[in-house]
Every structure is written in structure tokens, then in C-alpha cells.
TrEMBL record:
This is DNA 3'-5' helicase. Residues 38-56 have a biased composition (Low complexity). Keywords: ATP-binding, DNA-binding, Helicase, Hydrolase, Nucleotide-binding. Residues 497-665 form the Helicase C-terminal domain. It comes from the Eukaryota. Residues 17-29 have a biased composition (Pro residues). Coiled coil: none annotated. It catalyses: Couples ATP hydrolysis with the unwinding of duplex DNA by translocating in the 3'-5' direction.
Amino acid sequence: MESDSDSDASHISATPPGSPSPTAAGPPPLERRGILLSSAKSRTKTSASTSTTSRTILQPKISKKHSKPPPKSDRVEPKPLNTSPILSNLPFQIKKSTIPTDKNAPVGLLHGGHCASKFASFSRAQDKILNFEPDNAVEMKTEISVESAGFKEAVKDEVDGKGFTVKKVRKNLNLIGGSSSDLLTVKKAKCVNEGNFVKLNINGYGRKKFKYMNKRKGFSSSNRRHKYFRASKGTVRGGGEENGVFDEEGLVVDIRKGQDKLSFQAELIEEAVMRVRNEASDDNLLKLLKLTHGYDSFRDGQLEAIKMVLSGKSTMLILPTGAGKSLCYQLPALVLPGITLVVSPLVALMIDQLRQLPPAIQGGLLCSSQTAEEALETLRLLQEGALKVLFVSPERFLNAEFISIFSGASLLSLVVVDEAHCVSEWSHNFRPSYMRLRASLLRGRLNAGCILAMTATATNRTLCDVMRALEIPPTNLIQSTKLRDNLHLSVSISANRTKDLIALLKSSPFLNIKSIIVYCKFQSETDMISKYLCDNNISAKSYHSGIPAKDRSRVQDLFCSNKIRVVVATVAFGMGLDKSDVGAVIHYSLPESLEEYVQEIGRAGRDGRLSYCHLLFDDTTYFKLRSLMHSDGVDEYAVNKLLCQIFMSERPTIEEIYSMVKESASRKFDMKEEVILTILTQLELGEVQYIHLLPQMNVTCTLNFHQTSPSTIAARDIVIAEILKKSEMKDGQYIFNIPFVANSIGMLALDLSNHLESLKLKGEITYELKDQAFCYTILEVPKDICSLAGQLTKWLGEVETCKVRKIDAVFNAATFAAKVCDNAFGCLKDHHTPCLQRTILEYFNSDGDADVPIKMDQNSRFLQADIKVFLQSNAHAKFTPRAVARILHGLASPAFPSATWSRTHFWGRYVHIDFRAVMEATKQELISFVGKDVT
Ligand SMILES: Nc1ncnc2c1ncn2[C@@H]1O[C@H](COP(=O)(O)OP(=O)(O)OP(=O)(O)O)[C@@H](O)[C@H]1O
């Protein structure tokens, strides 16, 4: 089976090799400071300046009335080492990197989120370095056109079966816009590629930004010292593209195309803000909306959400894709006194959201692709109070220094959790790093005044989870219909999908549609299909995250300017896409869940016009994709082994940092890296806090000496002396594990890295870092590792089952429409909008975990015999039942890569048999094969 899918089910969080947080490295090693006096001194010095300076500078900007007492923390965070005098006035330490790439960056540098790329798909994850923020698309901004009329009827409270008071919001009922003729008329923004230049200081672009930055008339709703900046055309690093900015993969994101002439009037906006502060009435809010965004009316749910947030009530907001959720934090950000922190899962989404901020709202972002300078610049602006909105990834919360910016003062008025479904393991797109986002962190440690959680798709179970984690009361749920009614849904079973796709595109209504997205699951499929379409005189291009960023950007441009009719894409397509007239979405592959289906069809018809969504499906693809849902599965045996390694140390101290190299651990335990991260995160955030997870870093250092002999330096330098003792020599180079050496002399790994960096600057040494690793300190060793392994495996097994049920639900919905529906709900031929809408709404209103009848076979005559032959012919290898089942399902895993195992003719042979049935059959066979019980 191919494994090049741009799956969004794989979630990795990685903290940059170059950005381990000094504070995250565990509590201060008090008695050890004497060992490296210089480090200890500078650390102490910085620590004093860090928090105090930050608070002194930031506090005056924030209204005292919202201030809360500093949170009690039972952990003392170590302080950073200060080696950069330029930065000494910052509330946190950032050191300028002398090495441009993350890969080579010294561990001691805090790069504001430096890290190499993270790749969504399993195959790519194996051979590329993981990224701080994931780059795979989960959602795409779309826009729907909802006319306003009749606000009075717009909100209706209903208590649903779960006890939530659901504020149902009906479409087209908003009166506000209609009665706004007396409002100030402001030239409406024509392009969403608007916003504030300072926000886009990403990679090379940021280097030149000040050249283009014209300070405009100072304005702030709360403080006149806030500045507006306006972008002019920028030059990207490498000089290739204009008006662009690179993300961590060099993705070119167009900015400021079609320069906007929007003139906002600072004084008027400031007055409007003051009026809203005095009274957040519909009328005052509408006037502000018109001034800041140029819109005539609020869309469904927006006004209500904004009022809720302004009144300090944490809110759960569920609006369809493109319905305008961003506005629900943008306006409050302007009105509220403090900073609005937006947590977003993808760099591309952050850039997109930043770009879409209206000029009146100053924004910035901290992401993996920034250089230290760029992150520093964002932090400086934050420090100066020049930013109202800051976008960050959830991984940022691993960084204790980042957290310390906000703790102890009420700087944060609002924390927005975008794509909030990622918090829940029962969602279609769970991310372990989102688990960190809990009320205890956001309210308790960051002192956030209010939390706004937003998503377009969530089942009841997911919703409950998210609201529980963020402590949002059931009464504060705002939800509108999940589906737009301008989407015409059709389904057909296809024995030859490629042929049927061509036929579809050459027949009505698709024949006359100018912009079409065809969604495939696998990257190779997109290339193959687009070529096939071109061969059939249909202009098409493929788009997936394996394509170089520049080329992807070009495809998007061509599509947006209607120069190509069809984009054949994986789920990766949609990042930053701003095209309202996509007339059709065709699913060439079955989506993994109804949530994914709803999001992808939501990219059609953003202009409100009738648009067409067709789903082609067949059993074979369903079997393949269903197999993939098992790729994150784990066995108790492997979890046990992993736990033993994590808690290997007999007497751990909380100062000691442990590291686990991601790639080798993944192979050793036959677990995807993101699964290991999920387990580690659970060990930190579960009922008992066993570990404290730290930002990831490169732990293997290869050291070369240049000027002075190693022994001479070692005689005067305790760190080098220890390195020499603990190193392995290879080709004249010293190779050692940074945390291991640091622990042995009782210093922080970061201090050690900083020390190496200072020797490097003196020309004494050069070094290279590699092996990105999970890093943690141990707080408590579990008393019973076996029972903990059992609990974790059970939980992960339920998550695996949940994923399988999700794809079963899509398949069943499609099968029902294609085979069973029989026009019962008003459907006609291929047209199945009524029955599909019904199924989808039922699904979202359920817990999404009901057992659905499945089509899979449970056995085959030859299965047992084939397993026997397979085991005999591979007697040299060690198998678990899961490993064998994966091979028989054609599913690659870290220890059994497809490059090796797809050569066996059993590869993928039993994909049509339920995975668990294959596992069970293998288990029986292994018992008789090795003559003992296996798990
Ligand atoms: N009240 C409004 N009137 C007109 N246009 C609006 C209004 N609110 C939002 N929009 C526009 O709708 C588009 C989609 O908004 P936005 O990106 O906030 O959607 P979203 O709900 O966040 O979508 P997604 O689920 O993809 O994140 C944007 O172009 C935005 O400017």
C-alpha cells in the first residue's frame, strides 16, 4: 500500500533543536552552580532581568482591573543564560544565532521556535526532520455569503439532549446590517490579503521589513503609543518571488497582492472602541465592525460570540468553515485591554490569519520558521505593547520562558484556541500538543481573562472533551448549522475511478465549472491523475506537500487566477487559499471522516452560489484507507518497553534531563514518533504527572578542536574535561550526548550548549548537532509500569477504534446514499444532498463513536496458512501479531518499512480482512510457532 498520503491524522510536535528553553530544562540546579561559574553567574543575572524587566515594561499597558494574583507554581523554573547583551532587557532570553539553519543551530540558542520541518505523512516523517509546527493542512478558509436580515430572530436558545444550552443561530436573520444605513461608510476591504506588515516577519522576509515599514499615525484603542505599520512590496530571501514570504519549508505565501487602499481612521475607530467599552451594544459593535472591517453586518453567530467574549465569558464557537470565526476574536482583540493570544495548529494557517487581520489590529507571530532575530523582533513589539494579537503554535507552551512572559501579570485578555477539536483525541485531527491547552494552563498560569475555542467540525463527544478541558460552561456554546445549503452533494460507486472522473468532468454540470478541486488521498495519485486529466485536455495541476514550496505556490496562483481549471490535491491544499468561486469539489478518494468531508466540500461555493460536490468511492480504496487508520496502533508489549526506557534511571533527580532520540526510538518500539509524543504528553498531563516534557533538541554533538589541544583546554575547562571523558572518538572527532554530559556535571544541557557556543566564537572548536530527541525530566517513577502500560494501551486502542469508526461512518454514509437511499429523503439519481445532510447532522449530533455495521470480512480460508508460510519464511525476524497484520495489510511501520517488506508477496494481501481479525489469527499462529503466549 502506498504510504505517501498527506494524512492529517499524524500529529507531531517538535520543539526546535535550536530552541530548547533554558527554563524548560528543569528546576535550577542550585548546588551545582559553582561548577561552571561563568554560566551560573550569567544565568542568575539574566533571571533577574528577565521576569522583572518584562513585567515592568509590559504591565503599564494592561488595565489593572483585570489583574489577578500571580499563579502559584510549585515548580521553580530555571533561568536562562545570558550571553547576548543586546537582549538583556528582554523578559526572556533570545540569542542570536550565528548559524542559519535549525539543523546546525547550537542547542543553546532560543530561536523563537526554530526547527526543521515536520511532515504530515508517515513516509515523509521517516526521512525528514520534524518540525516545530506541523505543515499539513487541516482546514482551509472558505467564505459563505449570508445575507443579513432580522437579528431579533437570530438567536434561539435550545437545550439539547446533552444538557447544553445550544444557541442555535439561523441563517439570514441578522437585522443589524439592514439597519445600519446611518453608519459611517468606509471603503470596504476588497482583498483579504490585508493586514499588518509587522506580522509577517517570517524568515528572510523579516530581514528587510523595516525598509518597507512606514509608521503611520499612532493609534491604539487602549494606548496611543501603539503604532500602525503598513507593508509595501517586500523581497523574499533568495530573491525569487516578490510579495512573498517563506514559511519553514520555503513556502511562498503571497502578501499584499493587490495593495489595498483601505483608509481607516484611527480617531474614529478609537472613539468606536471607547463606545463599545462603555456599552457593548449591537449598534456600537456594528459601527466598530464597519470602521475596522468595512462589513455592513455581522454574520450568524458572530455578534453573539463577540458579546460573550467581551463580557469575559469563555465561549465555545462552532461555525462552518468560512463562516467568519476569525472576526469573533478580531473585534474583541481591539476592544479588550490586553493581548489576544491565538493558538493555531499550522504555520500556514497562522500566516493566513495574520494576513487577514484588518489594519487596525496589530498582530505578530512566533513560529518555527523564524530566525532568532525575527522572533526577537516580534517579542520586542510585544514588549512595547505594539501587538494586540499574537499567533503561536501549541508547542510554544512547552517553552517555560514563553509562559513566564504572561505569568504573574494579567497581560492576556483573551486566549483563542483555533481548531479547538485538536484538543480531543476523539476528533478527526487530534494533536498531542493541543492536550496542553487546558484551563489550568491558560487561566491558571497565563492569567488569561477569557478563552474562546473555535472549530468548524466537532461531534458531541469532541465538544464535551474540549469544553471540559477548557472549562467552558455548557451555557456558553454557540453553534450554527454545520452545513451550507448551497452545496449539491452527489455520490457514486466507481469500478474505475479515473475513467469516471474524466466522464464526470466532461459532463454537466462539471463541464461548465471553471474551478474544481479534486481531492485524493495519496501524493502519487494526485500526480498521476493530474497528468491523466491533462492528457484528456483538461487543464490540471497536482498539489501536495511533497511538491517544492515554490511550485505549490505557483499552482495555487494559477488556480486562483483561473489559468488552470482543476487542482488535484491532497488534504494539504487549502493553506492560505483565497478563492471564493470554487464551483466543485470532487472526492477521488474517500475522506477519512465525515469531519474531513465537511471541511473539504466547504471549500466549494464560498461565494454563496450553488456548487457541486461529488464523491467517487469503491471498496478497494475503503479497505486501504481503513488499514491506514490502524497505523498509529500500539501493543501493550511495546508500550511497556517504551515506559521501561523512559523510566530507566533507578534514582532520577528532577534536575536530570533525559533524552530519547526520536528516529531510533520510533524504530526500536515500532511506533510512529507522534505516537511516542502522545504517550509522553499523557505521562505529563494524565492523572499523575510522571514527567515534565521539555522542548525537543538535537542531542548528539560531534566536536572538533582547532587552536588548542583538547587536553590543554580540558585542564582549565571542566566542561571540556567531562566531554573528553564521556565522548566516543571517531575520525579524530569527539561524539557525545549533550544531556548525558550535562547531567554528569550537574549543569543544564542548555548551559553546556552555550558554553560550546562561546568556545566556538573564540575559534577553539566547531561542532555539529544531530539526532532530534524528546527531552524530559522525571518527576515520579510509576509504581507499576505494567499496569500503566495497560492503561495507556487501552486508551490508545480506543483512539484507534475511534479513527476506524470515523472512516466506517463515511463509507456507510456513501454506501447508503449510493445503494440504499432509494430516493427516500427526496434524493434523485446521484443527487443525495438530503440523505447525506441528514446522515452528517446525525453524526455530528452523536458522540461519533457508535458501532456501525462494517463491510469487512472477518476471515479467509487461506489466511491462517499464509500466516504460517510467512512466519516460516521470515523466521529470522521478530514479529508481533500487529507487525504481521500490518504487513498483510500493506501498512508500513517504523520497524517494518515498505522499502523492505513490500517485496514479500504477502504484502497487502489481506487488506480486505478486518485488521484486528488478522492480528488475532497471527497471534494464534505465533503461539503455535514459538510455542508460547504472545501479546
Ligand atoms: N460579517 C462579515 N461580513 C462579510 N464578510 C465576512 C464577515 N465576517 C467574515 N467575513 C469574511 O469571511 C471570510 C472567512 O472568514 P474566516 O476566515 O474568519 O472564516 P473561518 O470561519 O475562520 O473559516 P475556517 O473554518 O476556514 O477557519 C473572510 O474573507 C472574512 O473576511
